Amino acid sequence: MCGIIGCVGRGDETLDTLVHGLSKLEYRGYDSAGVALANSHIDLCKHSGKIADLREALSERTLSGSVGIGHTRWSTHGPPTDENAHPHQDCTGDVAVVHNGIIENYQSLRDELVSAGHTFTSDTDTEVVPHLIEDALEAGADAEDAVRETVDRLEGSYAVAVVVAGCDSVFAARNDSPLVLGIDDDATYLASDVPAFRDFTDKVVYLADGEFARLNGAGWTVTDTDGNVIEKDIDTVQWDPEETGKSGYDHFMLKEIHEQPRALRQCLRGRVDELAGTVDIGDLGDLSPTGVQFVACGTSYHAALHGAQLFREAGIPSQAFLASEYATATPPIGDALVVGVTQSGETADTLSALRAARRRGARTLAVTNVVGSTAARECDHALYIRAGPEIGVAATKTFASQLAALNLLALGTSTTGDARQVISALRDLPGHVQEVLDESAAQEVAELYQDANAYFFIGRGYQEPVALEGALKMKEITYKHAEGFAAGELKHGPLALVTENTPVFAIVTGDDERARKTIGNVKEVEARDAPVVAITDGQSDVERYADHVLQIPETHPRAAAVLANTHLQLVSYHTAALLGRNIDKPRNLAKSVTVE
């Protein structure tokens, strides 16, 4: 979850480069931050709080060095204090380390080090790393070997970056936590994610588990655990650095909600032929699944629920599983295709689930946004959603693109009678989303119900995952209680919580049996004096029973899910804005969950 940055070759600009990189990575964690520069000694500054707090602390300090590392933290071991902020040092102060992940054997290592006379100043698992390096250096190892020996002793997930006083290099290693190099003509960068250095270069090298990197003035080398040099491909990032800015919007989340039409066009481009009524995802090969198991977490799990419905509708047995449960209790797989839905491609629980499936001999497919991510590299196949970088912690455009990509996957690997209608609806989807963005009354609804005690979201069929996602968005950024339900479940317990101060958002599209049954649920809450907000395409008479209506264009039910979700994103956003919440950086959360 934390963000790591390192650079070599920027000279006097090293400190500014590190802090700039941290500002681009703050979505990965914002409990505390720090930097360390290496010269004949280590200059270090760290501070609890956000990057702005670190900047203020640095304004009162003078740090020098042309080799450096930085870190922005999401707390796992120990609270967000100055002492627990990274980088961490050894007893001599000659080693500085930043780390993302969890070192599972840290307690035994710490006990060993304390017994040997080392003094610890933090509650973190990370602090064992510099002390282990210190011991190796004192035993005669050079800096690189000392780091290698230390990494060999670590168990768990980690991405580590190290600087040593008197050494002109940054050393790094990874296992189950992302690291990527940025390659420029006269400088080399290291980070948890590309936005950290995208303003300086578009050339990247993705490190794999077990690989070790050394960055210095001569360039960069990647080696395996035995020290053998690995020839790595240099990839080119396709998106522009301006895409990680706010572009005049008050928040990244609002910008990314409004980027959904473009994200959907990118997802669909070159993959659908409306005239022929076909979908082309031929780069995946002939998957022909006889069964599908989806694994995912959070928002991606809601997209997976949508995907599972698509395949079941096509006659292919399909289920969606929470990745954290799947990884620890893997169900029978048979010859099912296992699909991991993960925006970052680095979600720890989803990677564990995919690896469990592969150990069982299953074919795996990653539906992800990030080229070169761990999921994309480890799975047999990868389907990219092409949403572009998403900085806001609460997923918005990536969810819309996941739904579109899963529709393409279902259409491209199975047969359905209304394929032409679905393809037509997908082609219309970017324009329809823009129509919702232009005309939504979400802000007025938010103003009316910003003080509600709780919020309920209900839907059936394709709209049930949207109800769950609407509730999650409300919880994530407003800190208000919200729950999503399959509409029919409302009367099996949750109805006891419904009052005149619990607005119910009912997603009703079409005029089929599902719509009519959901209207019945609307009448049930109306009878309990709950205000009702209907998200509808106008085909049913739900408006008769609703206090407020958020209209979507008439379209296929699959595409209607994306349109209804857009309204709910806006409702949550405007509610959070009215409540004065930190929308892009909600408390206790980070963008990419890379620890289990």
Describe this structure in words.
This protein is of the alpha/beta class and 596 residues long. The chain folds into three domains: 3-238, Glutamine Phosphoribosylpyrophosphate, subunit 1, domain 1 (4-Layer Sandwich), CATH 3.60.20; 249-430, Rossmann fold; 440-595, Glucose-6-phosphate isomerase like protein, domain 1 (Rossmann fold, 3-Layer(aba) Sandwich). Helix content is 34%, strand content 22%. It has 17 helices and 26 strands. The strands form five sheets. An eight-stranded antiparallel beta sheet has the order 3-2-4-1-10-9-11-14, with helices on one face. The protein has a six-stranded antiparallel beta sheet with strand order 5-6-7-8-12-13. Helix 4 crosses helix 5, helix 8 packs parallel to helix 12 and helix 12 packs antiparallel against helix 17 (557-578). The longest helix has 22 residues, at 557-578. The protein is globular and about 80 Å long. The N and C termini lie close together (10 Å). The model has no long low-confidence stretch (mean pLDDT 92). It catalyses: D-fructose 6-phosphate + L-glutamine = D-glucosamine 6-phosphate + L-glutamate. This is Glutamine--fructose-6-phosphate aminotransferase [isomerizing]. Keywords: Aminotransferase, Cytoplasm, Glutamine amidotransferase, Repeat, Transferase. One of its GO terms (molecular function) is carbohydrate derivative binding. Residues 2-218 form the Glutamine amidotransferase type-2 domain.
